[in-house]
Design brief:
By secondary structure, the chain is an alpha+beta fold. The chain folds into four domains: about 270 residues, BirA Bifunctional Protein, domain 2, CATH 3.30.930; about 120 residues, no CATH class; about 55 residues, no CATH class; about 160 residues, Threonyl-trna Synthetase, Chain A, domain 2 (Threonyl-tRNA Synthetase, Chain A, domain 2). About 40% of the residues lie in helices and about 20% in strands. It has 19 helices and 17 strands. Strands 1, 2, 3, 4, 5, 6, 7, 8, 9 and 10 form a ten-stranded mixed beta sheet that branches. A four-stranded antiparallel beta sheet has the order 11-12-17-16, with helices on one face. The chain is globular.
């Protein structure tokens, strides 16, 4: 079966078991400041797993598209993707292990058709310190279902993954006990970090064995289900929420126990065709085939580039088909990053022309079965992505021109371009470091011997300058440059960012006044703020303060700040050609980015608690907020 068929068969299978199939949540969640994207199937259902009744009952199922950018650097290997689809079923205080384990095994072996001899499972080994017993119940249920399938499944007590790397798998073993680093679920991670009052419990993971020839003992140690090698791939996880953590740190049994199951659609599909490379499944291989056609190069010789392009454009389509636009803030920046990384890898393949319009229809066809309730702007997706591709290629062309100017100045016999030159190209003109290196190689341009170390040194130097910016350069709005006024100044940036996020995306600062006692910000908005809106702004500023975000600055071309970084400012014509911008948070995805001279705190955690004291009219269409730091 292909991926679409497996998705459909799973939902039908769960319906027959009495589950209500619910619509998946959007990738971009509204009113959820804790995360950029839906990152798992259970994430939208967390309130119900914590006890809130669900309108559709106690048995639920869905197939949830998910996106995890923390895996972005791993994309390129055979199984990591930023985008994946999670098949899920949940029992909210209804059935438990005896019903869940046999059902999932039945789906894998009888519906998908996996060989039971290639299925391996893990269970929780227990924790004496907290009085949590070994999950013998789950292991015995697994032994029984294996036995019915003709497999005499032996049990191995591994403990830690490190122990497994040394021990490996013995003949006949299919059930493995691991510690809480591998087989315990809580919102805090392991047992020690389980939050007070939260439900938690052991989990039982399921793996597919691609064969002993896939293991790399020299690199990863001996293969076992929790190892990092390519032999075993996790295809599903069953979380059994049967405990809660008490206020004294101990654990007790829940009266109503939950099941949270998640199975990776891509990985189950890969197992169904016995391929440890998920990029050969129906959701991804057609993209690879098209890339081979466009580039004239083979997948076997260009696997990293083609995998990254296929993955990133798949994510770009799903985000843009939900109405997200590329930008330099929050989710929009993540979308922009995916698109640009795909274009850069296309350049590595020699694809210099626009190509996204040839790839996206293939991806759209693969996801035609997803409901319109989440893919609300399918028809606009290609235009959105094409526009971003054209804009980025213009940035690349401008960077190339600047690079060639540098080359003319340096000359062919002067040691070549340095890492400091490459840093300037990236920092001032937006020309990525890796593209500079690649272009130098293609053009036969010499780079200094230590260009990478020089680039890193320039980056470090800029960050250190950001931390120690001169306070005397900035006059506007500050009564003095003392420590307290500096805290208020950074808080003003955070407040404006919160206003732009929640109240008016086009809000601009129309004046400010900062003293050691309070701050005042004037901004454009068409209504008086409600108490609820003021509370939202106050909470967001305090959340950013609590996150202890770094504050940094850099100097860039005015046009680059305005057109590429999309810095919002008034009176651009009054600024010099090179402007200083301050960024709060990750410089790739800051919560605030403004033209400013300083001074600022080094980290937002230095500010203190932010409190709005008054909101009033300043003039027509302009409101004023006065706030203090407590």
């Amino acid at each position: 079966m292909n991926a679409s068929e497996i998705r459909q068969k799973f939902l039908e299978f769960q319906e027959k078991r009495g589950h209500k199939v619910i619509a998946p949540a959007p990738l971009v969640l509204e009113n959820d400041p804790t995360t950029l994207f839906t990152g798992s199937g259970m994430q939208p259902l967390l309130p119900y797993l914590l006890g809130k009744p669900h309108k559709d009952g106690k048995r639920l199922s869905d197939s949830q598209p998910s996106l995890r950018l923390q895996d972005i650097e791993d994309v390129g290997d055979p199984r990591h993707t930023t985008v994946f689809e999670m098949l899920g079923n949940w029992s909210l205080g209804d059935y438990f292990k005896k019903e869940q384990i046999p059902a999932f095994f039945e789906f894998l072996t009888e519906v998908v058709g996996l060989d039971p001899n290639k299925i391996y499972v893990t269970c929780f080994i227990g924790n004496e310190k907290y009085g949590i017993p070994k999950d013998v119940e789950a292991a015995e249920i697994w032994q029984e279902v294996f036995k019915k399938a003709g497999v005499d499944a032996k049990i191995a007590e591994i403990g830690s993954a490190k122990d497994g790397d040394e021990r490996g798998v013995m003949p006949g073993e299919h059930i493995f006990f691991y510690d809480d680093k591998e087989n315990w679920w809580s919102r805090g991670g392991g047992i020690e970090t389980t939050p007070i009052g939260d439900p938690c419990g052991p989990d039982s993971e399921v793996f597919y064995d691609f064969g002993e020839d896939k293991q790399d003992v020299a690199k990863y140690g001996k293969s076992h289900p929790a190892s990092d090698g390519a032999r075993f791939m996790e295809i599903g996880n069953q979380v059994f929420m049967q405990y809660k953590r008490n206020e004294d740190g101990t654990f007790s049994e829940l009266e109503n126990k939950n099941v949270d199951f998640g199975g990776g659609l891509e990985r189950i599909t890969a197992a169904s065709i016995d391929s440890f490379d998920v990029f050969k499944i129906s959701l991804l291989k057609p993209i690879i085939d098209k890339l081979e056609e466009i580039s004239g190069k083979s997948y076997d010789n260009n696997t990293d580039e083609m995998r990254i392009i296929a993955d990133h454009l798949r994510g770009s389509y799903l985000l843009s088909a939900q109405g997200l636009k590329p930008s330099n803030k929050q989710q929009g920046y993540a979308l922009r990053r995916l698109i640009r990384r795909a274009i850069l890898k296309a350049l590595d393949l020699g694809i210099a022309q626009d190509f996204i319009s040839e790839i996206i229809p293939i991806i759209a066809e693969n996801y035609k079965d997803l409901p319109d309730s989440i893919l609300t702007t399918r028809e606009d997706a290609i235009a959105t992505l094409e526009k971003e591709e054209r804009a980025f290629r213009q940035t690349l062309n401008k960077g190339l021109k600047e690079m060639h100017k540098m080359i003319e100045k340096v000359g062919s016999n002067e040691g070549g371009l340095t890492g400091y030159d490459l840093f300037k190209l990236q920092d001032t003109y937006g020309f990525p470091f890796e593209v500079s290196v690649e272009e130098a190689y293609h053009q036969g341009i010499k780079l200094s011997e230590n260009y990478k170390e020089e680039f890193d040194a320039a980056l470090k130097e800029q960050r250190e300058r950001s931390q120690t910016a001169s306070k005397g350069m900035f006059k506007g709005g500050l009564e003095d440059h003392g420590e307290t006024s500096t805290k208020y100044h950074t808080a003003t940036h955070l407040l404006l960012a919160a206003i732009q996020k929640y109240i008016n995306p086009d809000a601009r600062q129309h004046g400010s006044n900062i003293t050691p006692e309070r701050m005042r910000l004037d901004f454009n908005v068409d209504h008086k703020l409600t108490d609820e809106e003021k509370k939202i702004l106050e909470d967001q500023v305090n959340e950013w303060i609590a996150a202890d975000l770094p504050v940094s600055f850099r100097e860039v071309e005015k046009d680059y700040a305005k057109d590429t970084l999309k810095v919002k400012a008034m009176f651009w014509d009054k600024y010099p050609d090179i402007v200083k911008i301050y960024e709060i948070g990750d410089t790739e995805n800051p919560v605030s980015r403004e033209v400013c001279g300083g001074p600022h705190v080094e980290h937002t955690g230095q500010i203190g608690k932010f409190k709005i004291k008054k909101e009033e009219a300043s003039s027509a269409g302009i409101r004023r907020i006065k706030a203090v730091i407590e």
